[in-house]
Specification:
InterPro entries: NA-bd_OB-fold, RNA-binding_domain_S1_IF1, TIF_IF1. By secondary structure, this protein is mainly β. The protein is built from 1 helix and 5 strands. It has one domain: Nucleic acid-binding proteins (OB fold (Dihydrolipoamide Acetyltransferase, E2P), Beta Barrel), CATH 2.40.50. A 5-stranded mixed beta barrel has the order 1-2-3-5-4.
Amino acid sequence: MKNTSAIKVEGIVEEALPGLLFRVTLRTKEGQKQILAHLGGKMKIHKIRIVAGDTVAVEMSNINDIRGRIIRRF
């Protein structure tokens, strides 16, 4: 069964890491938080490039709050 309870937040890419991982700083109500995020499926298919300094939308599950998936680049 698919878990549909995902949280969507905006953040800024701080660093590109090997293996299509990115260190993203999120803007939350509590302050700033750094997570590791990977590219979503459509971003890989359409070969959308992400570099440091980009503003992105990140989708996170309720269970694991230190990992996420980049779903959109602004």
